[in-house]
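For the sake of transparency, this paper describes our internal protein records without simplification. Because each token names a local backbone shape, the row as a whole describes the fold. One such record is reproduced below, unchanged from the form in which we store it.
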Amino acid sequence: MKKNPNRKSGSKSKAKSKIKYTYEVIELPSSNTEMEKYLDIHRKEINSRVLYNIEYAIKMRMAVVEVFSFKDSNFVVMMNRKDFKENIQNIIEFSLKTQDYEVCNQAKKVMQILDRMSIYFTYKKTKK
């Protein structure tokens, strides 16, 4: 391990690295039968990715986030901020049913962030 001559021994660097958030649009098959099969197989993964996309949109203060796209198509499914809470609640219910408690816990944390943000925006709107 190399020693840094500019750093005092025993002291820890207090520089915090910024976390860069990105999100991934989920690509779904374009035919109905393929999409149903895909959703049945990958439902848990899709829920966690949708949750991550919602969290990204909240942290980046986006009003809308792209969630799904379709193979061989220009169509995309976008989610408005007003729909975040309902989708998070659906993810919580599904993860409880499938006993996926990690996703459930993360969804509750995202819901709390969203609740705090909605209080902030309500206060900001009423304050003149």
Summary: The mean pLDDT is 81. Residues 26-123 form one domain. The chain has one domain: 26-123.
